[in-house]
Automatic annotation (TrEMBL):
Entries under SUPFAM superfamilies matching the protein: DNA breaking-rejoining enzymes (SSF56349)
PANTHER family: PHAGE INTEGRASE-RELATED, PROPHAGE INTEGRASE INTD-RELATED
Chain ranges of the Tyr recombinase domain: 98-272
Signal peptide per UniProt: none
Top-level lineage group: Bacteria
Domain Core-binding (CB) as annotated: residue spans: 1-81
Identification of the protein by name: Site-specific recombinase XerD
Annotated function: Site-specific tyrosine recombinase, which acts by catalyzing the cutting and rejoining of the recombining DNA molecules.
GO BP annotations, alphabetical order: DNA integration; DNA recombination
């Protein structure tokens, strides 16, 4: 019923250079909105979006999910329907300012050790050791592993940007062990059901949850917690915030600066100029 409008949104987003991942997710959000309203397209008004957002909030979905649904519908109104869209009429929900949960290094080791499946253990270690988003980890290809330069090539990360990530020596050893057993040819972590497809993010999330419970860790964590932990552990070890920003693929230092709040001991260990000898400016 609404497929033609979904395709129209996809076309408009492709013309504007949106990443394939954004196009896929936004088109899904749009279908959910249209199915929720169950109205003829020409009768849609901003009030329908308000009702949809209230529905998502009542389902206790994340702020990022709700705002992504908001953005997809906003694009649909403005680009496809050519209708005015006022931010005053439909405000965007404010993002939560809560600090993310972080695992200690020993907790990370416990989770990885509790993962008995070799492929699953390899992808969890890769996610942590390189600070990857789960969507980046599952899309790694065999050719992305550069053992000569000890780096991983991340293609089309968030914002459709490429970058290089760390390939740790321990991770490389496990990947070589994994490779000998599974012999992947294209995707580094192919689906067990269809080797032409990569593992899904949902599979990795389920694996992580099961391993977390098995390790006896009760913190409210997800696979993305491994990425937060990677950044925090680097900061505590003395890595500067700008290097961490580049490794994570952030475009703004403001995004990365949240890790300063997660490692207060690192910030507060700085010696006050009152307690050290400082040369005067000339």
């Amino acid at each position: 019923m609404y497929e033609i409008y979904r395709q129209s949104l996809i076309k408009e987003m492709e013309l504007r250079g949106y990443s394939p991942r954004s196009i896929e997710s936004y088109s899904k959000y749009l279908l959910r909105f249209l199915n929720f309203t169950n109205k003829p397209i020409d009768s849609l008004v901003p009030e329908d979006l308000k009702s949809f957002l209230y529905f998502l909030i009542s389902r206790k979905l994340s702020t990022s999910y709700i705002n992504s649904a908001y953005s997809s519908t906003q694009l649909f109104f403005t680009l496809v329907l050519k209708k005015p869209f006022s931010l005053n009429d439909v405000p965007r929900i404010k993002s939560s300012k809560k600090l993310p949960v972080v695992l200690s290094r020993s907790e990370v080791d416990q989770i990885i050790s509790a993962t008995t499946n070799l492929k699953h253990r390899a992808i969890l270690m890769t996610t942590y050791s390189a600070g990857l988003r789960v969507s980046e980890a599952v899309r790694l290809k065999v050719s992305d592993v550069d053992s000569n330069n000890m780096q991983l090539h991340i293609h089309s990360g968030k914002g459709d940007k490429d970058r290089y990530a760390i390939l740790s020596h321990q991770n490389l050893l496990l990947l070589r062990e994994y490779f000998k057993v599974y012999r992947p040819t294209d995707w580094l972590f192919p689906s067990g059901a269809n080797s032409s497809m990569h593992l899904t993010s949902r599979t990795v999330q389920k694996t992580f949850k099961a391993s977390t419970l098995k390790a006896g860790i009760l913190k409210p964590v997800t696979v993305h917690t491994l990425r937060h932990s990677f950044a925090t552990h680097l900061l505590i070890a003395g890595t500067d915030i700008y290097t961490i920003m580049q490794l994570l693929g952030h475009t703004s230092i403001q995004t990365t600066s949240i890790y300063l709040h997660l490692a207060p001991s690192k910030v507060l260990s700085v010696i006050s100029p009152l307690d050290r000898e400082v040369s005067d400016f000339e």
